[in-house]
Amino acid sequence: MFTLKVAFRNISRQKKRSFLLAGAIAFGMLVITIINALTGGLVANIRENFSHALGGHVFITGREFNERGQIISKIRPDVRMDQLLEDNAGRIQAFTKRSQALPSLIFGSKQTMQLVYGVDFHEEDKLLGSLAVLKGSLAEVLTDEHAVILPQPAANRLGVDVGETILVKLETLTGQQNVGELRVVAFVEDQEQFGLSAAYVSRSYLNTLIGLGPEEYQMLNMFVTDLAFVEDFTRAFREGLLTPEEQQEEEEPTVSVTVGGVPIDPTPRQETITRWEGTRYRVMNINQIMEPVELMVGVLNRVGLVIFIILLLVTMVGITNTFRMILLERTREIGTMRAFGMHQKQVQHIFLWEAVLLGLTGCVAGLALSGLLIAVVGRWPLNVDPSLHFFLNHGRITFSLSAGSIVLNTALVVLTSLVAAYWPSRAAAKLSPIKALSSHT
Amino acid sequence: MAIVELENVRKVYTLGKTEVHALRGVSFSIEKGDFASIVGPSGSGKSTILNLIGCIDQPTAGTVSINGTITEGLKDRALTDLRHKTVGFIFQSFNLIPVLNVYENIEFPLLLGKNRVNKKEMREWIEFLIEAVGLADHMRHKSNELSGGQRQRVAIARALVTKPEIVLADEPTANLDSKTGQSIIELMKKMNAELNTTFIFSTHDTTIMSIADHVIRLLDGLVVEDTKAAAAAGGLS
Which CATH number characterizes residue B167's domain? Predict the structure, then answer.
C-alpha cells in the first residue's frame, strides 16, 4: 500500500503534466463513450420505431394453397393460435392483425405501385403515435372506412392532395382484378430507407378488396412486455403452430457425404414444394429484422473503437515519454528508497500504480464529461430533417450505454497506460542504488 | 565485537578508458556501538567506503563483512534485505521524499519490510524519534517547509527507525552552517549513546572529528591512521 500511497502523491506533484495526460485519456474515453452510447441509443430507437411501424416485435404470417394451387398469404381463425395467445397473455403487451397488398394506386392519369397495410386503427394507437404526419390529420381514419394514409413520396408521384380520392387496383387472393376507392386523409414521412414505404388503410376494407373474410387476416403482430425474452416467445409460437407434417419434416435426418470435410451431393436435389393441407405459419421477430441495422451499428462501433485505439496509442507515446522524464527527475529519490531497502519490484510498482491512477482518473473524467454531454444533448428535441426521425425518440437523440462497454473501455485504457509505463518502470527498477544516489536529479 | 570488517578492500572505477583506484587495499574494523569517523581529503575514498559498508556498492577485490555477513556474491534482493535490516543512511543533501511529510518520511523504511509491524508500537516509536530529534511541532510538514537542519534531523530519525545496527552518514554537516552542523553531530552522538547504534560518518570537519571515539584517516585510497587499531596495538605493546 506504501507504493500506492507514493504513486498517488506523485500524481499531484506535477499537476499540469498529470492534468494534460489524464485529459488526453479523458478525451479518448469521451469519444468512445459517446459513440457507444449514440449507437446504443440508435439501435434502441430504430428497434422501437420499427416495432411501431411494423406493428409489433413478433410477426406471424400464414400460407395456404388456394383452389388454383397457388400459395396465398392468409390466416384463418385457428384454435391453436387462440390458445397460444391465451397461454402467453402475460407476456403480450398488445397484438394486431393486419392484411396487406401491393396494389396500383391511381389518381387521374398517374399511377404508382404501393405497399398497403390493412390495419384496425382502433387497436393500433401505437402506429398512429409513431407516424410523422406531414399534412392532414390521422383522426379521420377512425371514422372513414375508405381513408388512406399515404407516404409523402407516393403522394408526390400521384400528384394527389389531402382530401382527394384515389383508385386502388389490385389482385384478389384468387387472382382476379378488383378496384376500390380510397380518400387521402394524411401524408406521412416515408421510411423507404428501411424498406418500410407503406400506406395504411382500414383492414376490413382491404379484406373486402383482396377477398378475405372479415375474421381473416395475413399477419399477426405482437408487442411483447419484455424484449429480453423475445426469442423464447418466438420459439413458443413457432413450435406451437407447427403442423404434425411440419414436425415430421423437421425430424427427418439428412444424410450427407463428405470428402475431406467438404460435403458433396452426388444427386443434385430439385427443390419441390409438396402441396399441404391447411395453414402453415412463419414466425419472425424484431431481432431478425434488426440484423442488418445491428450489423451497420457494429461497423460504426468498430470504427469508434479504431479511433479510440489510435487516440490511446498517441496517449501511450505521451505516457511513455512522460514516465521517462519522471525517471530522470526522480533518480536520486529512487536511489534513496533503494538504499533504505525498497526492492526493485516495489520501485516498479510505484510507476505502474501512477500509470493506473492516471488511466483511471482519465476514464472517470471522460465518463463524467460524456454524462454531461449526453444530459445536455439529450435534453432538447432536434430540428432535423424528418427522414432522421426514425433514429430519434420523439425527436430527441437518446443514448444507451452498457456497463460492459464501460468496463471494457476502462480496462483497455488501464492496460494501455500500464504497457506505456512498463519500460520506464523497468528502467527505474533496474537503476543501481549507487548510480541513482550519485545522480544530480 | 566487530560489526564492520573490511579486509584488503580494493575498488577500481572505470571512467572511459581510465581506471580510477578509489581504494587500494583497505583493512579496518569497527566495533558495535562505535561513533566512528572516516576522514580524509576529497578523493581519498571516504564515500566509497561508506557505499561498500552500506551494501549499495561492491568491492573489486577483498571482503566486506557487515554484522557477520560477507557481501560478496550476494544478489540484489539479499543485499536490499541486508540494507533494510542492518543499515540506516544519512545523506549530505538529506534526500527526503518530497511527497511525504515528516512523519511519513520517517515511517517509510518500516513499510518496506516483509515483517508486519504492530501499528500502535510503530506510531509510538516514530513519535518517540520525532520527539528525540526535536521536531514534534513539525510532524505533518513536508520537507520543503523545513530548514536544512530540520531536514537533517528528519533524516537521522529516518535512519534510526528500523533500529539498524549501523547508521552511515556521508558528510552529514556539509550542507549546514557550523552551529547547526554541531547540533546535528551532538544529536547523532546522543542517539549513539542512547540506542547503542553504531554510527559511521565521513567528514572534513576537524571539530566534528574530535567527538568521534574512533577515527579512520584515509589518503589516496589507503588507511593512514586508525585510532582504535593504534590504541589496541599500543595496548598490546
Answer: 3.40.50.300
**Cβ(A398)–Cβ(A378) below 8 Å:** yes
Summarised one tens digit per residue, pLDDT across range B131-181 is: 888 888 999 999 889 988 899 889 988 988 888 999 999 888 887 787 878
Q: How many angstroms separate the Cα of B102 from the Cα of each of B36, B41, B129, B143, B151?
A: 27, 33, 11, 7, 9
Residue A345's pLDDT band (cuts 50, 70, 90): very high
pLDDT at A261: 45
B142 touches A: beta carbon within 8 Å: no
pLDDT digits (tens, 9 = 90+) for A152-184: 989 999 999 999 999 999 988 888 899 999 999
Report the amino acid identity of residue A71.
Answer: I
Residues 364-383 of A with CB under 8 A from B: none
Q: Which of B77, B97, B109 sits opposite A333 (nearest CB)?
A: B97
Q: How open is the CA angle A63-A69-A72, to the nearest 5 degrees?
A: 25
Nine cell digits for residue A361: 482518473
Domains of chain A: 2-51+288-437 (no CATH), 97-217 (2.40.40)
Residue with cell 387496383: A169
Q: Does A428 touch chain B (CB under 8 A)?
A: no
Q: What is the pLDDT of residue A272?
A: 64
Q: Which domain holds residue B114?
A: 2-236
Q: Round to whole Å and give the CA distance between B124 and A377.
A: 57
